[in-house]
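lol forgot to send this yesterday, sorry. struct tokens for the thing we talked abt
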């Protein structure tokens, strides 16, 4: 049985709600569709923000044939089959979860995109700067999608045809958190179970679902939070438990490793500077080795980071510095710290009086007595 989210998916921009910065009048995707311009791009945004829908609308509107693959299960053979298919039509490869294509697979895809054998539309919830190889990224425009706004979510809920009172609608909008697919699916399941949409029935529907680890939902964020907090508290055993939960449930190991690199500077910092070296080494090992063996590297890193002494002074100091930047703007840099690149600059006093090891403040004068480090 076809899910409701698929049944009510709009076929053109007139029925598409949200992402006005991309599809509104005079915006890039609406212009491309109007001009029937074929090009490669990546849609980066949270779950349920319309990435697949936009890709299909774009392909249909420019009279191109779209081939849909999931990077989780697709391989080189699937791409070759698409390339080899004959016909005079324009071809678009829609690659969902493009961040799950490894470097070798992306390298394989690159020449076909370069030659124009296919136009690539990648969809991802992860930052393409980290997950897509530079050569492929440089040949694609990146469009960032936002979570669906409350106003647009209400329009989507109305399209389902289910009658909801204001309380149920407001609760559903808040629960969905910008994810249209989750809102539609919850509505559909509530109606199938109870034949009436109320706040209580919506809540019961969510509670009755079998929840394993949802890489795009609340459990994803709860588990990584528990993992980080366990390492912060120096409790390596719970940290390893939450790590095992994530790995066993199919979490992207690079996501875990990236959080560990951040943790090494944010929470350990100056107490043990080599923690950043270890965390980076773990990330690199994850890139090279992949699952399942890279779980060993993740465990090594998690135990090490948990046992390190903690010092957030550099991170906290940076936050204070950022606050001053935002409060004061770009204050004039003292003349003695400026680089006298030209004769005129030198005559104006750039670099004059600069001493390498001076004890005088190098701050702008408005911040002369600032202290960000407290230890």
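and heres what i got for the seq, position by position
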């Amino acid at each position: 049985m076809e899910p409701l989210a698929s049944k009510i998916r709009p076929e053109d921009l007139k029925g598409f709600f949200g992402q006005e910065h991309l599809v509104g009048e005079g915006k890039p995707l609406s212009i491309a569709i109007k001009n029937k311009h074929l090009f490669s791009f990546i849609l980066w945004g949270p779950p349920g923000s319309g990435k697949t829908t936009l890709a299909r609308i774009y392909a249909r509107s420019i009279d191109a044939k779209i081939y849909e693959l999931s990077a989780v299960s697709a391989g080189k053979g699937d791409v070759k089959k698409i390339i080899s298919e004959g016909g005079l039509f324009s071809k678009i490869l829609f690659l969902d979860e493009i961040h799950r294509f490894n470097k070798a697979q992306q390298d394989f895809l690159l020449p076909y995109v370069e030659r124009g054998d296919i136009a690539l539309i990648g969809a991802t919830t992860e930052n393409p700067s980290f997950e897509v190889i530079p050569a492929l990224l440089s040949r694609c425009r990146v469009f960032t999608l936002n979570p669906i706004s409350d106003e647009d979510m209400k329009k989507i809920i109305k399209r389902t045809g289910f009658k909801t009172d204001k309380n149920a609608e407001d609760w559903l909008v808040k629960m969905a958190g910008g994810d249209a697919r989750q809102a539609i699916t919850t509505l559909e399941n509530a109606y199938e179970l109870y034949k009436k949409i109320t706040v209580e029935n919506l809540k019961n529907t969510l509670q009755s679902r079998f929840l394993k680890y949802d890489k795009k939902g609340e459990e994803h964020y709860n588990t990584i939070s528990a993992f980080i907090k366990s390492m912060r508290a120096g409790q390596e055993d719970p940290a390893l438990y939450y790590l095992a939960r994530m790995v066993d449930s199919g979490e992207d190991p690079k996501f875990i490793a990236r959080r560990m690199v951040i943790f090494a500077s944010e929470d350990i910092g100056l107490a043990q500077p080599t923690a950043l070296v270890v965390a980076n080494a773990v990330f690199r090992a994850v890139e090279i080795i992949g699952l399942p063996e890279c779980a060993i590297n993740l465990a090594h890193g998690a135990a090490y980071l948990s046992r390190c002494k903690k010092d957030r002074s550099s991170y906290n100091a940076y936050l204070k510095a950022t606050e001053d930047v935002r409060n004061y703007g770009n204050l004039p840099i003292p003349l003695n710290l400026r680089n006298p690149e030209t004769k005129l600059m030198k005559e104006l006093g750039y670099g004059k009086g600069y001493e390498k090891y001076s004890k005088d403040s190098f701050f702008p004068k408005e911040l002369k007595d600032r202290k960000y480090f407290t230890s």
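The chain has 19 helices and five strands. anyway ping me if u want another try
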